[in-house]
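Deviation from plan, reported transparently: beta-D-glucopyranose complex.
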Amino acid sequence: MSNTQTDPILDGLSLEQKASLTSGADFWTTKAVSGVPSIMLTDGPHGVRKQEEGSDHLGLSGSIPTTCFPPAVGLGSTFDVELLERVGVALGEEARAESVGVLLGPGINIKRSPLCGRNFEYISEDPLVSGVLGSALVRGLQSQGVGASLKHFAANNQEADRMRVSADIDERPLREIYLRGFQRVVEQEQPWTVMCSYNKINGVYASQDSWLLNTVLRDDWGFDGLVVSDWGAVSDRVAALAAGLDLEMPSTNGRTDAEIVAAVRAGELDESVVDTAAGRVAELVRKAVAGASDTPYDRDAHHGIAREAAAASIVLLKNDDAVLPLATDASVVVIGELGQNARYQGAGSSQVNPTRLDNALDSIRELTGAEVPFAAGYTTDGTDSVELAQEAVALAATAGTVLLFLGVPADQESEGFDRTDIELPATQLTLLDAVVAANPRTVVVLSNGGVVRLSGFADRVPAIVEGWLLGQAGGSAVAQMLYGVTNPSGRLTETIPVRLQDSPAFLDFGGENGHARYSEGLFVGYRWYDARDIAVSYAFGHGLSYTTFAYSDATATVDADGVTVRVTVTNTGARDGAEVVQVYSSLAASSVVRAPRSLAGFSKVFLVAGESREVQVTVRREDLAYWETRIGGWVVEGGEYLFEVGASSRDFRATAQVAIEGDLVLSPLNAESTMGEILANPIAGPIVMQTLAGASGEGAGLMADPSVFKMMASIPIARLAMFPGVDIDMEQLDQLFAAANAAQG
Ligand code: BGC
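Because the crystal trials were delayed, the predicted structure below was used instead.
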């Protein structure tokens, strides 16, 4: 057990009292025990979901009104660190005003498949984006004296059978893709709590995984906070406590506290383990109490932040012939139920009761000062809508431009289950066909938490606006964007595939018999589409603006922290706007399996029309590292790195190259080591080379011939020693290996 802590406050407490600190009093609060008061933990992540009374976990009983900021799918698309920190601050102010000590978020699980029912609550398919933006949210929130709960740790990438399924993942993808974002947030921000996930990882429940909770989280990453269970994630409480799960939520009515006490009394659990967990609860309570204050927050100002975040979340996917922005006096009709009745968040534990709710239709009418005609076109409850569709098509023919609002109905996207396809509802697609036939100048505006297939119509409409789920101010943010009051600056944090069948986890998403095998390995998201050279509808990182940007003069220089990439970016259009400058790294001649490129850094810059600026993107050396399974550590491979700089993962505008010195990887030598591995070892290598050079046998001759050296390099030394005429003394060699292994520690 690592990080054993003893807290003076525990001194006077009985074993029973200490055990009782390690589980909840009810759904949302910890127990008040002797000198330790109770605190409240509540959802999260994009608003404060504080239930008034009759707590019931998934929100059947109502919660108090608080600001509904855009869910993570939107916040991620902003690529805006500063803005997300402000959203975090606002969330902290609201949580504090409502006496909430810990807000249960952010969620930063990787979007492995577009089908995951909870993708709307997650930031990206890329660990760098998830880690950087997750850090910003935690930083903002905790600056207000409210704790974050980084979740769901770890590998909770599907909802199907989420409380039992085992995510079976190889070591490299686990470290490089699924844990990497968590590592960044933990190391940079020290979230007060980390929430362990429901699922198993390689057969072990996250809640009972000492490797995950102690070795990786605490020992490797230096986490000094508290691990809380996801609600109901504990299968064996005593095993979980021993594995580093400090606080079990919600209450088990004292049942599992009694199990802990019994295990200690039976000598099966060391009391110091209970002390450690209880100490961490006491420490969390102390921090929450210190942060408490009844300072009210400004609802209007927070609605404004929610709108700013929503505006920055919108991704303009397509805009042929500058159909957008619209002039306020343009002839426009709005079609689609979602235009007046927006979907603005997903279902499940994250569902916030908003303080206000903007809708696009009203906002468009307000902004234009015109009674813009509207037809619902379809229903969102699945009922037939032939008449609604006919009315809508008739209306479409009357206008200069149609704004057609489409999206995924609420009952298809939720916590607790996955989608079975990525199609828009058939009735909406039929309507789209008819509307486009009646009026080709149709702008599609989408509301969806997970990506939908656009390839069936993308080439038939001039403009597509990806409006995600945008929170309570999404409607007005969409209206402002359509009319150019704001300039879109969101970028895709996930690839939109041509077909679901193209996506990396297509063949085994969901798994079978309790196991989901992550057979695509490292190749998640754009890493997969790029490696397989698969056409996509819209690439990771893509998003248009009403202005244009030019890139020039990229350079890359190695410095103490890693690499600094500099590039000059110019706003070459007529409007002010923001660009997300993306830097992708690659190493062509690598000795390990790699994606063709990985996002290594990004920076969002605002440039007024005509402005030119040198943008600096810092690429941390650790973000260039891969997980070396032979030594169980991160390694930067030496070589000539290419940095591709541009506006998406498939739109590069400038490149720079730089040589980077690698870390020395010394894998332990033994008889099975190859000649290549031995010769690369600074101690054993020269000695073996000398032995071979001095020997008269055939082996030495072969090794001296560069044309066959490469082939020889892959032969294990014990096999080479058997070759006729090779004069290698394996006993001597074993001694040499022992000395070399000892020297490298
Ligand atoms: C969810 C968590 C949430 C918790 C409390 C669980 O079902 O997975 O994300 O924080 O409930 O509502």
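The radius of gyration is 28 Å. We consider this an acceptable substitute for the interim report.
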